[in-house]
Each structure stands twice: as structure tokens, then as C-alpha cells.
User: Fold these one by one.
Assistant:
Number 1:
Amino acid sequence: MPMIMMKVTLKYMSLNFMIEGTIKPNHPMERVIMSVHIEEKTSFTVIGKLSQGASSEGPKWIAPLWKEANDNFNEIRNLAKKDTAGNIIGIWGAMSDISERFERWTDQGKYLAGCEVFDDSVAPNGWTKWVIPSYKYAVIKCNQNTYQKQFDYMMNDFLPAHHYSIVGAVHEYYRPADTNGDLYLYFPIEKKGELSHESID
């Protein structure tokens, strides 16, 4: 889990509306209302520490990756994108398939632990630069304890109920100002029947 020692405020570039998820009758979470917002995000750049491993063993190899990124953050601090107040925009756990086409994980996956940077930034030695494609995202808040529950809810309930298909790897977003362990899961989506995420209205 990221522990970048900075106070950061993020201003979302979202569509500014909330969708309340529907829960199936007798579902274990039937009395829980989960807020999901839909956000259009243009392509963005992340520089971080990269690793690859088995999907089933993610916590084992991702946690050390964050430690490595945090321990060496000063090497990329000056590249971090900031808002008008000088605060770092955000920390990302970006994901991709092993071919780095930003498709969903299979039995293996890649994970980039880093921060959002300016597009023309050059990754220092030992760091990796990814340019994440533009997508429409369904975004839900969670923490380490609710991560799997929220993920399953999005995949099995919210997305099907709203006629969305997931079209790429899910990314994790961390607001550095949040110190309570919260994070946001970004699900790249398109309406079923649309040709590609580039054609979304």
C-alpha cells in the first residue's frame, strides 16, 4: 500500500454525478448502498516501479514493490504532476496484462507502483514509464479490507446492471492526502455494443 509522505489534494475531472448501485435481493450486501461515479479521463502518464507476477499471489509481490517505490521516491519527486497549489495530483497502482496492452490480467499480470507525471517526463534508471490510454471509468472507493468485496460488486452487479463491459485492466488510485487507507478502483468501461472506448459519447 502506498505510503508517499506528502499532503496532496486531488480535484477530479469527472462527469460530476453519482450512480447508486443496485443490489440483488438476498445479496449479502443488500442493505449497503455503494456510490459509483463515472469519469472520463484522457490518457495520462505514470512513472513507477514495475513488477510481474501470478495474479493469485498479488499481495506477495506487490507490497514489496510499493516499498521499493516509496524508499526511492525522491528520484522522481521532481517529475510528479502537481495541481495549481503545488500538491502532487496522485499515486497510481497501474495494471496491465504482461504484453503491456493494458488488458485485464490473466494468470499473470504487471503492476506499476508510481505517481502521475508530465507526459514528456523521462523515467530515471530503474523506473518505468507507462502512458495509460484514454477511457471512460466507473470508479468506486474501497480500502484494503473491502477491496475484494467492492471489486466483486462492480464486476458481478454494477457493471452488468448498467449494461457496461469492462474493456481493460483495473487501476488503483490513491489520494496522498488520505491517510485512512482509502483508495479508488478505476474500471475502464464502455456500453455494451459500442465498438471501442474511443467512440464513447
Number 2:
Amino acid sequence: MTTLNRPGAPDGHVCGIDTAMEVIGGKWKVLILWALHEHPHRRFGELRRLLPGITEKVLASHLREMEADGVVRRVSYDEVPPRVEYSLTGDGEHLNDALRPLAAWGSERTAARGAGERADRSAPPVRAPSGRTASTPPDRHRG
């Protein structure tokens, strides 16, 4: 995934998060990284089965991009029938380590929502400048 240069940023990146998002941006890339971490050295079809809902086109495209970014290794074996396996590089493993706290946050959030313990429920309702609560819809017809 290529990020266009932004004004004032000589390499086109504003910060480290921007650089990381260039590598992991998109709906499936983080899930591909996680699948390869949990199931190393997988063939294309195996990866596709590990990621329900991903299309072959998107998986192939993301794997090519991730290989170009140096986080996924593609090994082609000279066999009949041909065999290709994907695995994480050292940078890919390091990236997964960086994503671990994000995964923990997501798991905690899912558990809290499942238990009905959303943090914002205990807070008083936020008042809009009009005096209405933020969840109260505005009057559509004012006379």
C-alpha cells in the first residue's frame, strides 16, 4: 500500500503510526498477520480458510503487498505440483508483538460489552448546548 507524500513530511510520513498504518492498513492485513502468527508456514488455501470472508483476489493482493513491505515471506518449492508457503519475517513477528496490546484491548472491550459493563453507562448523560441530552434527537419541525 503506497502512501502519497504529504506536505511538510519529506518521506511522506507524519509519525510512526502513519508508517505502521501504511503496512497494516486495510481490513484484512492485521488478520493475515495474526493468522500467520498462530499458524506459521501456511499455504494460500490454508490461509484463506483461516480468514472466512476474504476473497482470493484480496488475499493475493495483500500477501504481495506484505511481502514487498518485508513482513511476510513467500517460499516457492520446486515440486510437482508447485507448493508455495507464507510465513512471517522477523519484522512481521515484531509487528505482531506490537499489535498484542491492541488485541488485548479488543478482547477486554468485547468481554465488557458482552457483560453489559460499558464504561460510559456509569457516567452522567452529556448535555448538548441546547440542554438536551446527547442521545435525544433534535426536533425536526420547529414552529
